[in-house]
Specification:
7 strands, 251 residues, elongated, alpha/beta
């Protein structure tokens, strides 16, 4: 996720490359990042910064925070499931911390993220965090307890969409389409449908109704999906991912 965010920020010209530093402890990974981002300083040494984005695995947060110390500046954490209280406890007293849950479409500038403020974070700190994440998508502010639900919906959501794409492609092949044709049609259908939903004035119910003629092909397809419990499966998926996020955070 950190690499996706970095790629999106650079593509959006959020800041000059010379003002961005990546700290990576693992030498092989450092070499990969240096090759991919030749204009960025990639190092294993922590130095003073106006702000820091923590993009580590949850189990590495304590070590990363200890290494940062007072050099962190204000902190934006995208570590899944790591609570604000734990972040603040691992950083110097009074550190402004903002916790975020972004998603991987940030890589192509269409991410969806939610942020929650720590006890020392001001509106200016939230605006700083928004400036980073909004460079690669939309940002909403929520109370921290809602971040688990955000994880279950938009954090894990891209995987659900990709699964739908896989299923549509396989279905196209099943009814006789060549696989490349099925893949192209499925991808464009998802893209076009998403743009109608996001850019249009109608909600999903109205858009679905507009495609569904009485007794027509779409009505038959939707009936099959409802019989298979697809709607309930999506509900269960979001609930399961939300509960897992709570487990990871120790709630």
């Amino acid at each position: 996720m950190g690499e996706a965010l970095l790629s999106g920020l650079l593509a959006a010209d959020w800041a000059p490359a010379g003002e961005v530093r990546v700290v990576e402890a693992l030498a092989p990974r450092r070499a990969e990042l240096t090759t991919r981002f030749p204009d960025i300083e990639v190092t294993d040494t922590v130095g003073p910064a106006e702000g820091t984005v923590l993009a580590t695995k949850p189990g590495d947060i304590a070590t990363a925070c200890a290494a940062l110390g007072a050099d962190a500046g204000r902190v934006l954490s995208i570590a899944a499931g790591v609570r604000l209280a734990d972040l603040e406890g691992a950083l110097p007293n009074g550190t402004a911390v903002v916790r975020a849950m972004p998603n991987t479409p940030a890589l192509v500038g269409t991410g969806a993220a939610a942020i929650a403020a720590g006890t020392a974070a001001t509106d200016d700190d939230l605006a700083w965090a928004e400036s980073i994440l909004s460079a690669v998508g939309i940002v909403v502010r929520v109370a921290e307890p809602l971040l688990d639900a955000v994880t279950g919906l938009s954090g894990s959501g891209p995987a659900y969409v990709f699964l739908v794409a896989e299923a549509l492609i396989e279905a196209g092949v099943l009814v006789g389409l060549p696989r490349p044709v099925a893949a192209e049609l499925a991808g464009q259908t998802l893209l076009g449908s998403a743009r109608l939903l996001v850019e249009g004035d109608d909600g999903p119910e109205a858009l679905r109704a507009a495609v569904t003629s009485p007794g027509g092909t779409t009505a038959a397809g939707l009936r099959a999906l409802e019989q298979a419990g697809v709607r309930a499966a999506f509900l269960d998926a979001v609930v399961a991912a939300t509960e897992r996020s709570r487990e990871l955070g120790g709630v």
